[in-house]
Design brief:
Layout: H1 3-9, E1 20-24, H2 30-39, E2 43-48, H3 52-61, H4 70-76, E3 79-82, H5 89-98, E4 107-110, H6 121-125, E5 129-135, H7 144-148, E6 153-157, H8 163-172, E7 176-179, H9 185-212, H10 218-236, H11 244-247, H12 250-263, H13 268-284, H14 290-300, H15 302-307
Helix pairs in contact: 12-14, 13-14
Length: about 325
C-alpha cells in the first residue's frame, strides 16, 4: 500500500477515531511512536518506564505525559503500545490480563517483530483488540526517530476485521504497511535482523580494522563505499556482488585470512562464514566461474583457513569486477 495514495483513499469510517494513547515500556520505540501518533491528532495520556534512561526519553518525547504503572497506563488509554523486549512480552500480556487491567474494546498494540497477534491471546480473551505493528527501523531514542518514521515499512499482523484500522494507524505515523502472516513473523524478523543488526557488527569490525591499518577517519572512508554497495544491492541483488570472493581471487582471500588471524582473530569466523555464503551466491548466479571456485573454496575450507593456505596468483593484480 502506498501511503500517499492511501491517505486520500481511506474513507473516514476506516480511520481510527482520535484516541487516548498509552505506552508500556518507554524504551527507544514506544515514546517515538506515541509522539508520531500525537502529531496525527491522538492524545498520549500515560507512559510507564523504570530506568533513568526511560524516564528521560519519556520526558523528552512526551513532555507533560505522566509516568505511571503499566496497569494505570491501561486504565487511562484507549490505544496501548506494548513496547517491551520480545522475551518480556508474553509474560507482560499474561500478567495484565490476569490482573484485570485489560478492558474490552481496548486496542492493544505490540511492536515486536518476532510475534504476530497470538501472543496477545490472553488480552483477546479479556476483550482487547490485538494488533502487531513492527516498524522496520532502528531507533535512537531521540526526536529524530519521529522524522525517520516517514516512509518506514511496518510489518502488520492483525485479525481481518482490524486490518483497515491497523493499516490506518501505520499510515498516520507516516509509515508504509506490509502485511505479514502470523506464521511468517519469525522468518520476517530473522530476515530483518540478518540485514540490519549484523550490518552494524560488520561495519564496526571494518572500522576497527581500518584504524589498526592506520586510517584516521574510517567512517569517512567507508561511508561512500558502503552507501554505494547498499544501493547497488537493493537495486540489483546478487548481480551487485564484487570483490575477491566473487572474482575467485583465492590468493587475496588467503592473505585476508592470515592478516585477520594475526591482528583480529575474533573476526576470522565471521569473515569465513560470509565469504562462503558469498561464494555460494556468486556461483549460483554465474558470477564466480567453477574453475575459479575450486581453489577459493579450498582456502575457505576449515583446513585451508586454519593453515592459511595460499591460493594461486596471490601477488597478481587480477582484474577487478
Amino acid at each position: 500500500m502506498n501511503a500517499s495514495v492511501s491517505r486520500e483513499a481511506l474513507d473516514a469510517r476506516d480511520r481510527p477515531a482520535r484516541l487516548t494513547v498509552g505506552v508500556v515500556g518507554a524504551g527507544r520505540v514506544g515514546p517515538a511512536l506515541a509522539a508520531s501518533l500525537q502529531l496525527a491528532g491522538h492524545r498520549p495520556v500515560a507512559v510507564s518506564g523504570v530506568s533513568d534512561a526511560s524516564v528521560r526519553r519519556a520526558a523528552a518525547l512526551l513532555p507533560d505525559v505522566p509516568l505511571v504503572t503499566p496497569a494505570e497506563v491501561l486504565a487511562r488509554a484507549e490505544l496501548v503500545l506494548l513496547t517491551v523486549p520480545d522475551d518480556t512480552l508474553p509474560g507482560l500480556v499474561e500478567g495484565l490480563a490476569e490482573t484485570g487491567a485489560v478492558r474490552p474494546g481496548q486496542l492493544l498494540v505490540h511492536t515486536s517483530g518476532r510475534y504476530g497477534t497470538q501472543v496477545l491471546d490472553p488480552a483477546l480473551r479479556a476483550g482487547a483488540l490485538p494488533l502487531a505493528l513492527h516498524p522496520a527501523m532502528t531507533f535512537t531514542g531521540t526526536s529524530v526517530d519521529v522524522q525517520r518514521l516517514a516512509g518506514c515499512s511496518f510489518g502488520v499482523t492483525a485479525p481481518e476485521e482490524l486490518r483497515l484500522a491497523a493499516e490506518a494507524l501505520v499510515i498516520e505515523m507516516g509509515g508504509e504497511p506490509e502485511w505479514i502472516a502470523e506464521e511468517s513473523r519469525p522468518l520476517y524478523h530473522a530476515a530483518l535482523a540478518l540485514g540490519s543488526n549484523h550490518l552494524v557488527t560488520l561495519v564496526a569490525q571494518s572500522m576497527d580494522l581500518l584504524r589498526q591499518a592506520g586510517v584516521g577517519a574510517p567512517d569517512r572512508m567507508l561511508g561512500p563505499l558502503l552507501g554505494a554497495a547498499l544501493d547497488n544491492a537493493l537495486r540489483s541483488g546478487d548481480a551487485a556482488l564484487t570483490g575477491p570472493v566473487a572474482r575467485g581471487d583465492a590468493g587475496t582471500v588467503s592473505a585476508h585470512i592470515r592478516e585477520l588471524r594475526a591482528h583480529a582473530p575474533q573476526t576470522v569466523a565471521g569473515y569465513l562464514a560470509m565469504a562462503r555464503a558469498t561464494a555460494d551466491r556468486a556461483l549460483d548466479h554465474g558470477l564466480l566461474k567453477p574453475e575459479s571456485a575450486e581453489a577459493l573454496l579450498g582456502v575457505l575450507s576449515d583446513d585451508g583457513a586454519a593453515h592459511g593456505t595460499n591460493g594461486p596468483g596471490e601477488s597478481g593484480p587480477g582484474e577487478k569486477r
